Amino acid sequence: ALLRPPRAEQKSFILTPSKPLAGLQNVLSGSVRAISGVMDRQGCPQTIATVDQDAMIIESHKAAAYSHYEGGRGYQPMVAVWAEANLVLAAEFRDGNVPARQEPLTCAKMAFEALPETVTERYFRGDSGCHERGLLQWLNSGEREKEAGGRIGFCVSASVGKTLAAELAKIGDAEWKTFGHDPDGTLRQWADVDYLPSEPYESKVEGEKPFRYVGLRLLKPQGLLFADGSDRMHFAVITNLDWSGDRLLPWHREKAGTIEHVHDEIKNGFGGGHLPSQRVAVNAAWFTIALLSYNIASAIKDLCFEVADRTVRVKRYRLLIVHLAGRMSRFQNKLRLRLRAPDEAIKRMVKVWEVFDLPTQATATS
Fold this sequence. Notes:
- The chain is α+β, with helices and mostly antiparallel strands.
- The chain has nine helices and 14 strands.
- The protein has helices at residues 19-41, 105-114, 133-140, 162-170, 245-253, 259-269, 280-304, 314-322, 343-355; strands at residues 48-55, 58-59, 66-67, 73-75, 78-82, 87-92, 121-126, 152-157, 177-181, 187-193, 212-219, 232-239, 325-331, 334-340.
- It has a nine-stranded mixed β-sheet with strand order 6-5-1-7-8-12-11-10-9, sandwiched between helices.
- Helix 1 (19-41) packs parallel to helix 7.
């Protein structure tokens, strides 16, 4: 609390992590690189990395918790996930009153730094909380092309203000291209938007080429309306990719199947949503340990489970690999483990030992 400036000076701020917390982030990054090395040895290397970044809300009624934008109280950590490998790359623990658009670049930088050198193609996806000038300029900078993974292609949900909304409404019906249908018959359509940024969070640097805006229109069939009484809704994304809208928008929408799933599992499956302390640093450490647990479980599922079991949630995962009864015994200087479990469960456990070859005092060579 002594590190916080007076509330009169700054309503929301992000505390600089202590050395132990920074060390935990290094452990999280190291787990990603170690698991990537195991993937390489198992013949399934990951050379493409799509970083999905989003903030989650953790409800808390502790006295130290601050109000968040949904009306409750709690914390709002920012999390970045490697979509192809299903691994958490980085996280930044934040108070509940810190908006997602406040300094999202810090978490993004940590995420890309955590990627292994085997990655040769990099992308970034985010919601409107990532529509922030500093982040977008960093992602699009020519300096990224000099790095090991090369250029970063990004697609971020745009904050639709009055000016952008007016530009979307000007687009004629003939310019909208249909690329999908919802179950109720709603048409999903896209069109390029001729738009120059004007809001402070999106203003471009003088002389810099403006980003591309792609509009999304949801058009209800005749006789059906949205809750506001209209038959259409407009959204937009901002990107540096030249993909056609019928490829770009479904690809961007896929992030809901990665980052939202991770949020749910971390909060409800691994205990990240049940914070133990009034102290922010303690809660941040607890949350990071939950992320580490997620990465370990994700790696075991992807590399050791049968295809049908690789998408199981943590409740099912516990039954498959954790909650197995056994007895340790020693006879003639040999340590034995006798399991009371089905053959499939024993084979699964043996597979884990084979894939993750961890040296011990008994196996270490001098």
